[in-house]
What we know:
By secondary structure, this protein is α/β, with parallel strands linked by helices. Helix content is about 40%, strand content about 20%.
Amino acid sequence: MKVLVVNNAAPFIRGGAEELADHLVRKLNATDGVQAELLRVPFAWAPRERLIDEIVLNQAFQLYNVDRVIGLKFPAYLIPHQDKVLWLLHQFRQAYDLDIAGQSHLGDDPDGRAIRNAIQAADDQCFADCRRIFVNSPTTQGRLKKFNGFSSEVLYPPLNDEELFVPGEYGNYIFAGGRVAPGKRQHLLIEAMAKAKGDFRLVIAGPPESDAYAVELTALVERLDLKDRVELKFGFHPREDIARWAAGALACAYLPFDEDSVGYVTMEAFACAKAMLTVSDSGGLLEIVSERTGAVVAPTAEAVAEGMARLSEPSRARGLGEAAKTLWDEKGVTWDETIRRLLA
């Protein structure tokens, strides 16, 4: 079977979806009787009028010598094929829930509404043509059903490089890995450190979505006089380093706004037996992050500081971290089962 995985490509932006696509192709190629390749389609969502061109471009693709297509993200999943399976990581949320939340760049003028309608119509046609629709979490599943009326099956992304993420010692820092972006709210972690009580540090490591946000965080650390307590490790890091920082942390932190899934940062923390600090509007994480496996607080600097203080107690951090690992192990999410379902 010749399998083509299709995903979009915003140049020089790389996150969990890109890691997942690479690992999916690698695991498919390790499966008997399967050849797989990844097609990354360049994607730009600004200016907003460009989105119509993106829809037309992907709908006009013609694929040859391909037995099955696995689509991941908009608009690449619009590429037509007679045997297409969707593993929906997320739709173009600016046309859906982010629009309702006032976080969309589409606008509410006639042109913005027309673009939004075009996106939803293209999605509906794509979903109707798919052989099966999988989603990466109940959050994504609910969003798909609410806005488009389509049912789906939850298929959790397995942990990449699972052999690297193992329990380690409990150090004196809280580790916040992953892409550095306003939507991930690393600034809130820094603001909380200025209010947090306890003898611990914060380590933020990951590629910035923009130079402007990296500059903002650096200035924030300096303005709050936190250079001795906050370490910023901007850039792409070897997976071995990410695993080492997670395994040696006292606890981990991840504060995205309405995340689609539990997130790789969460999975990596749980695999390393680390408690997770998150906030009440972080979406998919809340499926497994709770007071049993970490701390869930309000999205304010004061509340995050209080959560940090709670997780800075070594005995509590260890107990919650062990519970987190047990919970993740019980989920039994493996690449073998994932590949079996995607190819069925």
